[in-house]
Amino acid sequence: MEPKKYGGPTDHLANERTFLAWVRTAIGIMAFGFVVVKFSLFVKQLSLMLGKEHVIKSHGLSAVAGITLVAVGAATVIFSWVRYRNIEKQLNEGGYAHSSGLLTTLTAFIFLVSVLLIFTSWKAPEARKNVLRGTAPGRWRSVAAPEGSIAYAAGWSG
Fold first, then answer.
1. Can you spell out the DSSP letters for the chain?
2. What is the pLDDT of residue 53?
């Protein structure tokens, strides 16, 4: 029977580096979710400022996607900490069993969110073309922006 091989300092340091990499990944996912939510709010504010209910048609999915990304980032931190503790325990007991469940789950989720974002972005290409050409209802430059607003400071007033 082979004697148990306990984890050395390099094994524990590698485990810690992997945990920190997962934390960095989770922060990136949460930051992206935050940007998606804030962009959704920016588009709504811009529409209200221009006097239109919605210049760009919105299905309301960007806020949901952003909040979901933030939640997944938070869950990734928790799952990575659980994985870190399990591997630490295995190294201290003299055994190690590799598990790729967290990686597989996170990869599948990011792929699913990517497909959903592509699908929702692809859905209304004509509305984007009209806004870019300036032929959308309530063209941007034809509406006077209130003094002191972001649009006024940027020179978008009519």
1. -PPP----HHHHHHHHHHHHHHHHHHHHHHHHHHHHHHHHHHHHHHHHHTT-S-SS---SHHHHHHHHHHHHHHHHHHHHHHHHHHHHHHHHHT------HHHHHHHHHHHHHHHHHHHHHHS-HHHHHHHHHT-SSS-GGGSPPPTTSHHHHTT---
2. 58
